[in-house]
Design brief:
By secondary structure, this protein is α/β, with parallel strands linked by helices. It contains 3 helices and 4 strands, in the order H-H-H-E-E-E-E.
Length: about 100
């Protein structure tokens, strides 16, 4: 029987991420561009649907806030429905969603 997990692991070792999963690669490139801009200007960022916060590491010099419907590891700032986040309009400079 063919082991698909071994094949996927092999492909990730042989080919760059941008070839194997172009969608994830494009999102990561976009997040890096936003982070670079935010970090220059000490802006406020809200990551909607942040989950386990995979992008937090890129936002070192800005105020990074998170929202999710679940409170992963008690690290989510706003636990709510994405349509009903308890903040005033225009509270953030950038929103990741």
């Amino acid at each position: 029987m063919f082991n698909q997990i071994k094949l996927v692991n092999f492909l990730y070792k042989v080919f760059p991420k941008k070839i194997i999963n172009n969608h994830a690669y494009s999102i990561e490139k976009f997040v890096l561009r936003v982070a670079e801009e935010c970090n220059k200007k000490n802006k406020k960022v809200l990551d909607i649907g942040a989950g386990e916060q995979p992008y937090k590491q890129h936002f070192n010099n800005c105020r990074y806030y998170t929202q999710d419907i679940f409170n992963y590891n008690n690290a989510i700032d706003y636990v709510s429905d994405a349509k009903k986040i308890p903040v005033k309009d225009n509270s953030f400079d950038y929103i990741l969603c």
